[in-house]
Specification:
The protein is mostly helical. It contains 7 helices and no strands. This is Small multi-drug export protein.
Length: about 160
C-alpha cells in the first residue's frame, strides 16, 4: 500500500508544473524509507535537473533527520539524569547501545538506509548516547552518499526510458 501511494505520488508529480515537481521531490526526501536516494531517483525518473534535485533532496532529508536528532537528544539526556530502575525506555536504550557498539555512529548512519531508515538510525545513535555532533556529522555524510546513489539510479532509469 505504501509503495503504491509513493508510485501514485510520483506519477502525479510527473504531470505537475516544475515548481510543484521540485517541492514534491523535497517532500519525498522527508519520508522515512524513501529519503534522499528515493527522492533523487524519482527526480531522475521524471526528468528533473539532477543537481537541483540532489540539493533539494539532501536538504529535505537533512532537515527531517535533524527533527529526530535534536529533540530526542534532549529527551535522552533527561532520561539519563533520572535515577530510576530499568524501565521500558532504559531497556530499549540498552538494545540500541548494543547495535551502536557493534557498528558505531558511522556504521549506523551509513547502513541505516539499507536496513531501516536514516531516521531510525539517528534515533538509535542518540538512544545509545552517542555524541550529538558526531551523529549529525555522520548522518549528513550518509545523506549525501545515498543521494549520490539515488541520482545515479534516477539517471539510469531516465536513460533507460528514453
Amino acid at each position: 500500500m505504501f509503495r503504491q501511494m509513493v508510485q501514485d505520488f510520483i506519477l502525479q508529480l510527473s504531470e505537475a508544473n516544475i515548481v510543484l515537481q521540485y517541492l514534491g521531490i523535497t517532500l519525498l526526501s522527508f519520508i522515512p524509507f524513501v529519503e534522499s536516494p528515493g527522492a533523487t531517483a524519482a527526480a531522475g525518473l521524471i526528468g528533473l535537473s539532477v543537481l537541483l534535485s540532489f540539493l533539494l533532496s539532501i536538504g529535505g532529508n537533512w532537515i527531517s533527520i535533524m527533527l529526530i536528532i535534536l529533540p530526542f537528544n534532549a529527551i535522552v539526556k533527561k532520561i539519563q539524569n533520572r535515577k530510576s530502575k530499568k524501565g521500558f525506555i532504559q531497556k530499549r536504550a540498552s538494545k540500541a547501545r548494543e547495535r551502536y557498539e557493534k557498528y558505531g555512529v558511522p556504521g549506523v548512519a551509513l547502513l541505516a538506509p539499507i536496513v531501516s531508515s536514516g531516521h531510525i538510525g539517528a534515533f538509535v545513535s542518540i538512544a545509545a548516547r552517542a555524541d550529538k555532533k558526531k551523529v549529525i556529522f555522520w548522518h549528513t555524510i550518509s545523506i549525501i552518499i545515498w543521494a549520490i546513489i539515488g541520482v545515479c539510479i534516477g539517471a539510469f532509469l531516465n536513460y533507460e526510458i528514453m
